Every structure is written in C-alpha cells, then in structure tokens.
Amino acid sequence: MNRIVILFFVVLAACTGKDTGNQELANKILADETLQKVDSMARQLMKNGFYAGSGYQMVWSRDLNTFIETSCEEYDNAVIRENLLMFFNFQMENGELLDGYVPREAFTWGDPHTYESATAPGHIGFKNTVETDQETSLVQAIYKYIVKTGDKSILNETVAGQTVKERINRAIDYLYTERYSEKYGLITGATTFDWGDVQVEGGEVVDVDELTHWCVDVYDNAMLAIALNNLTELTEDSNEKKRFESLHSEIVKNTRKYLWDTDKSKFIPHLYIDGSPFPEDFDENEIHYHGGTAVAIEAGILNKDEIATVLAQMVKNVELSGAPSIGLTLYPTYPSEVLAENISAPYEYQNGGDWTWFGGRMIQQLIEYGFVEEAYQQVQPMFERVVINDGFYEWYKIDGTSAGSGDFKGSAGVLAKSIEMFYDWANSNK
C-alpha cells in the first residue's frame, strides 16, 4: 500500500471520527458466532427459573445481583419483583439481611442455622454469616431492577409493615453498627478467601464462631461503595443524598488508604482487627485477590493506569499458575499448612479455583474503562469452555475441568452482560 493510499485512509478515519483499529475489532466482535452462541445460551438459561443454579435450589442475593439484568430481559418482571421483596420478610430486627431463601418443601440439606418468618411461612431463610455482602448485594440488585424496568415503585412497597426504602436504610445502618471498624472506617467480615464465604479457620466454616478472626477486606467494602452510589442515584431526598455521598466518599478513601498497597500496586488481602489466623512467617500480602480487585474497579476505587497494572498482574498470575483464565480467584494460593484441615486445598474451590462469576466482572470493567481489545482477548477462554461444556459451570479447576453447578446463573449473567457491553461498544465503533 503506497503512502497516498495510507494518507487517504488516515484522512478518512479522521473525517468520520472512526479509529480503523477500533473498526476492525468492532466488526470482529459483531461477526463472532461464539459470542452469539454464548449469549443465546445464557438467555435460555434465564428463562428456566430464578434459582442460582442446578446445584442450588435457592434464591441467593449475591447470585441474583449478577444475573438480574439479563433475567429482567428474559423472565417475568412481576416474578422478579416478588423474589426481591421476599428477602425483606426475613430482615432481622437489627436490619441484617440474609443470603437468601428457599421454598419450605425444597429445604432438604439439614442446615442447623435457618430462619423463619411469620410473613413468609412458605419459605426458609439461610445465611453464611462469615460474609458481609448480603445487604449490599440486595441493594445493587434492586437498583439494577429499577434501571432495567423503570419500576421505582418497588421502593415504596410495604413488606411486613415497612417500606422497602425504610428497610434498605436499616440494612445500611446494620453494617455501620454491627460490622464496622472505627479504626479503619471500613466494614468488617470473617477471614475468607477473597470474596468467598468459607472461613480459613474451619470450625463452622460458613458461620461466625469462636475461631473467627475479624478483618477488613477490599471485596466487602467495594460492594458497599457500589451500593451507596446506587442509593445516591435512587433517592430524591437531598439530605439522604448527601448522607450516602458522604458515606461513599469515606469508604472509597479508606479503602485506598488502608487496603491499597501503593508499592506493590495491589490490594492487601486482610487487615486484622484482633490478630491474624496465620503463622507469623506467612506473608499473606504476596497473594493477589482477583475478584475483590475487579469489584473495586467497578466501585471506582482504581484509576485507569492502576487498572492496566492489575490486569497485567492477573495475566501474569494466570501464566504462572497455569489457570484457564483471569477468573482465577487468587494467586499464589494459600498453602494447606496454614489452613484448617477441612478447608480447600490449593486451586480448589475459592482457594485458587477459576470462577467466571468474577472473571466476567473484570471483563465488564475492562470494557467500561476502554480496554476493549484486552477484554476481548481475556474473555475467550471463558466463552470457549461454555461451548465445550455446553453449560455455565460454577468454577473450573487448574486443569480446566468443570466443577460445581452446571447451570450456574451467576456465570451466565456476567457473561451475558459482558456480551451486551461488547455489542454496545462495537455498534458505536463499526
């Protein structure tokens, strides 16, 4: 191609406001049959019901939060609304919310820690108390439902004598009264693997007990930052808006102040309130938390340069570990000798398993911040395994073997949203 022709295309691109590199990528995305297939599969799965997955016949707030947008496009919105409202029947007196609920006849797993509600006698509630993302997950899910459907009236719906808006405010108050560190100005939780709900000390495993070591981490606080931002947008009360804005600002500021390691350009896994569960010679800060980092990006805690840096770290971690994708939960993994005997070995489950459920959220944020080419490259293994396995598995082992629920809606939801974001970008740049 001679210089005159090259100059012609440069001038043409400038006149049309189009970047030829972006155009090529856009056209590639729009013609990609794998994206079309995965999107179709995800949407078909959303039509099959509202449970979290084939292995989980329950409705979970943290799962629902990641597939509700696609569900709103494929499922009866009235049923979705009812499912959201059901959570508030199980709200505790102190404002605490549960993980979820299940129809009474489907409660078969013998959990000794269950909850019942006089206003929802047909259901049983449950909660993994080591985590601190239940309240924030439900707030985010309601926000997404409102954005998708325009049904803001849900906030004024009365459940067990109080409006949803009042109950949401009580849920936020609970986090600041029952799960808050004055020292750090951040909310607390038990010591788990990144975003997970399995405590490293064993014991009750998913429930707080005498073995629990309380700490602050990036995932829980990033989730709160997102929820507070959502509430700022939803409220029409100026005083309430100022309150949520102030709380949001403090959480973001303190997350960066205490949890972002500037020298290593990564988040510190945990800051302990009263002692660590690990031996003194174990350097936990060598571990990178991929999932919590992705959610922190969604919360606006990192800038674009920092996002590029943590992406490079994730890609390097995948290379070093041999994991299938940047859905790799964390790296390096926690060695078995620092964990309780019955807790996940390295590269099992939340201790270094590969979870599309969170990897897909990183893909979304890469698109959001303009790293579209990188997102398209990194998402390929996630798309490919859906097609190969003919389903959306919960997680994958280090060798790529599928594990957990075979129809995990969380995985389907984050990929479907990623595909929608790819298409929106591509249609604007073709």
Automatic annotation (TrEMBL):
User: What SUPFAM superfamilies does its record include?
Assistant: Six-hairpin glycosidases (SSF48208)
Q: Which UniProt keywords apply?
A: Glycosyltransferase, Transferase
Residue span, Glycosyl hydrolase 94 catalytic domain: 75-318
As one GO molecular function, the record gives: glycosyltransferase activity
Q: Biological process GO terms, please?
A: carbohydrate metabolic process
Q: Which InterPro entries match?
A: 6-hairpin_glycosidase_sf, 6hp_glycosidase-like_sf, GH94_catalytic
* Record's protein name: Glycosyl hydrolase 94 catalytic domain-containing protein
Q: Which organism is it from?
A: Draconibacterium aestuarii
